[in-house]
Amino acid sequence: MPTDNFNTIPLKPALIDNLQTLGYQQLTTIQAESLPVILAGKDVIAQAKTGSGKTAAFSLGLLHHLQEKKFRVQALVLCPTRELADQVAKEIRRLARAIHNIKVLTLCGGSPMGPQIASLEHGAHIIVGTPGRIEDHLKKGRLSLANLQTLVLDEADRMLEMGFEETLTSIFASCPSKKQCLLFSATFPKQIVSLSEHIMVDPVTIKVESTHDHSSIRQHFYQVESDNQRLVAVQQLLSTYQPESTVIFCTTKVQTQEVSDLLYAQGVSCQALHGDLEQRQRDQTMICFANKSINVLVATDVAARGLDVDNLDMVINYYLARDPEIHVHRIGRTGRAGSQGMACSLISDKEARKVMSLESYLGQEISTEPLPASSSDNTLMSKAKMVTLQIDGGKKQKLRPGDILGAFTANQQLSADDIGKISVTALSTYVAVKRAVANKALKIIANGKLKGRSFRIRKLTL
User: Fold this and answer.
1) Together in a domain, 66 and 173
2) Cα 319 to Cα 223, 327, 349, distances in angstroms
């Protein structure tokens, strides 16, 4: 539950003032318990779930200690995926905007190396990145951590699960021996303890139970006997409930792609998210799911890390997670902000051990129920209400969301209500528009100009 006001924490006045303008009022539990310790300069091991406010906790801590006039890398935040790194960097920039000339640089795999090298030559205060790319820059001598004050490992359990232990060890060797280490993790496998012993000095351990109210989530368990039955069960659930936004969790990359392809072939607005996809595909998928032009995202646990989507209607566990904590983390993505969420898990007799483990963890008996009856309608799901249009121009062409909105609404061609989220990246702009006006919106840009220039545009989702 939320606790004290941010004014009770001895943060820099500029940070406090900015928090007030951002609407941050009360500290979450993880912030109240960890921030005073972080500000005191101590090492911290914190267990906290997604949505608990942990990003703001470590971000405010490293910003408080930052010496803005010292233009050297003073803080390094390591994340398991580019999606999470981008999300963290965005939050740090928001929290730092009242402190002038703070430079936050994101270094992740899957992005062109050239621009990163050029940015590193200009320097930065804070680096946010994935282990592999950070190690690469360190080995090539392009990145120096000689002035590092704060090292943050966000979602440390996932980095270990993805096989980054050796890479992390290499990065630690490039860090000064005297620094503050902040380790945040949703789960605590044994490797976490081993990792902390190598890099931390007398760490303070903080464990915060999930701040998510699981009473707002309806959990349903359905018995299945085969993979074919699992797919049929998913089809029946989607057909019956017609959720606007659903994540289906699978255990392997191959399985994730297969389920996505099968649903897509049946007309579902659906895409897969897993580590074998190119970074460009992953970025576009995340944008389309967040702007509601994709109804269903089929994902592995690792790929879905950092998923930031409002009002997620349903989570489907195609297979039970191997760890009960991961199960709770999965279902905690629905039913947020006071809305009613739904979590549906498919289980077979072969998963008896997982079921027993989950029962023990939840403190309740799990009983299965019949699947909802199949619909006689041939249509599995309604199409997504929005369609994403991709414009071949972005920040480098000086395009801004206001330019795009202005072009669509000029002369009342479209209403502002017809336009959803507008995401501007370095070289592309993604615009969600209502399906009914998608073709009209396409013609407005194709036949017109933005900033006096013509840009190509296409539909990214059908």
Assistant:
1) yes
2) 11, 10, 12
